[in-house]
Amino acid sequence: MATVTVTTDNFEQLVSDNDIVVLDFWASWCGPCKRFAPIFEAASNTHGDVVFGKVDTEDQRELAAAFGIQSIPTTVFYRGQVPIHMQPGLLPAEALEDLLGQVRALDMEAVKAEMDRRRADADAT
Predict the structure, then answer these.
(1) Radius of gyration of the chain (CA)
(2) Is pTM beyond 0.85 here?
(3) Of 30, 39, 64, 90, which one is the catalytic site residue?
């Protein structure tokens, strides 16, 4: 599956319609982003059950700001509509594969239960 362009207009739908979403925040002038692009594209062709989205930080400043992007490339992993991990910097292919494996292996019921517990703790203070 090829990568998709992510914008403020399609972000919510993309995350809500897919179990695993991996986002690459990048810019055309960024050298490390250019080196990461083929790694990201290759992974998108290998993992047909995962949506790989590219967010151009120059064009989608509002979306980049919403994520607090301070360096690029930054890769963000979603599972079950939950942001699981944010990794700034160029990821080697092996690291990207490892992180995808970790995201797949998560017990999402346990993750959501922990999120609920933390919200309850925060509300109690």
Answers:
(1) 15
(2) yes
(3) 30
